[in-house]
Structure formats: structure tokens, C-alpha cells
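Dear support,

I submitted the protein below through the web form. The confirmation email said the job was done, but the results page showed an empty box. After a refresh the structure appeared. I'm attaching both so you can tell me whether what I see now is the final result or a partial one.
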Amino acid sequence: MIFGCEVERTNAEMVRKMTALLPKNLLKDNATVVRARLQAVIETGSLPADGRLPTERDLSESMGVGRRAVRSALDALLAEGLIWRKQGKGTFAGQPPDKTQILAAEIVGETDFSEVMEARLCIEPTLAAMAAKHALPADIERMRALARRTFEAGDMDSIELWDGALHRLIARIARNKPLLTAFSMIDEIRGNEKWRSFRSKKRSLETLKVSDTEHQAIIDQIEAGNSQAAETAMRHHLTTLAANLSRILTP
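What the results page shows now:
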């Protein structure tokens, strides 16, 4: 019970911070304003590590708005794919876990770095090429923001978080479910704690600068709608990553 109370206090405090800069008279029962504020919180990474949003009641009380406005705002974010719900667990930012998680967990110990990089080189350049055909201006803005967060991250965990988010966004923008499913399985393997620790060994300020330059090149070509160049840029980026990791493995 004490733990539950502590969680409620944490949620309430988080929501108060969300609305600190927003005049109360602008909120009232305006679902559009509530949605915009929640989207800003999601995109700036102000939520807990698991991405769980406060309850409707906490949001309503802390923002000083009716639960109807909160519910409408959350429904809009859900429709836009910015949040997802799990029965009995709550509402979370981002995309729901893919069913490939189970399969990825089964094979994570049966594969190695070389196989994973080969798979990435087969799939992600194609996804980048397809993203160049479908990306909207808002998608480009989100990619730029994620690339910036990756470069400005102050620790290895944050770098992994934002770098992964960028690659996942490109995969979603490609709008190809079979390829997205294949990518998701590889991404789940990469998300394994042991694999994250391994990758962190190769990161340095120098490699981070190189990755940022390569990320920008990929985004530039996607923005230009140049599928072939976007594919080439992604392939170059992954080849650089593979070479860096290979140097760690080499005695």
C-alpha cells in the first residue's frame, strides 16, 4: 500500500510539472490543449523509463480538467499511434510490443553479432528506401529530433534509447508490415541487456559524431525522396557499425 501511494504521488508530481508552464484558464475542458500537452511530454521523454502515463484520474486532477477531456485526448493519441493500452496495466507511450518478442527471446542465445548485422544489412537499407517514398514533413521533424537526442545524450543507456527510436521510426515510416515484423524481431534481439552492454563498448565521442553525420545523411535522403540514396546511406551507416563492432571482437 505504501508503494502504491508513492506511485500515485510520483504520478501527480509528474503531471504538475507537465502543466506548470500552461495557464489554467487555457486548459479547462479543452481536449485539444490536453492532447498537445501530453504529446509534448511524450516526445521530450519526460515519462518514466517504462513509458507509462499517469491514470486518467491523476491527469484530470493535476491538470484541473474533466476526465472527459482527458479521455478524448488519450483516444486521439491512441488513434495517432503515439500511445497504446494494455488491459489491467495502463497506458504507455510509443508502439505496443510486437508479437515477435517471444520468438526473438527464443533465438537470442542461438545467434551472434555477425548474423544480426547481416540481417540488418538485408532489411534496414530497404526500409530506408521505402521510407523515402512515404515520409511526411512531420516524420522528418521527428527523425531530426531523435537524431539530435541521440547525439546529445549524456549516457550510454540514453544513446541506445534514442538511437533505437530513430531506427524504429524509419522502419515504421516504410509502411510495410512484413518487413517491419522482421525488423522488430531483430530489434528485440538487439535490445537484450547483454547485447546492449556489448555495443556500449564501442561508443565514444568520435564514433558518436560519425554516427550523427551518417544519421543526418540518411534523413537528408529520405527527406529528398531519393530512395536509392537513402538505401545507400543506411547501408553505409550499418557497415560502419559492423566494422566498429568487429574491432572489439578481434583479439
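Response: this is the final, complete result; the empty box was a page-load delay. The domain at 100-249 is CATH 1.20.120.530 (Four Helix Bundle (Hemerythrin (Met), subunit A)).
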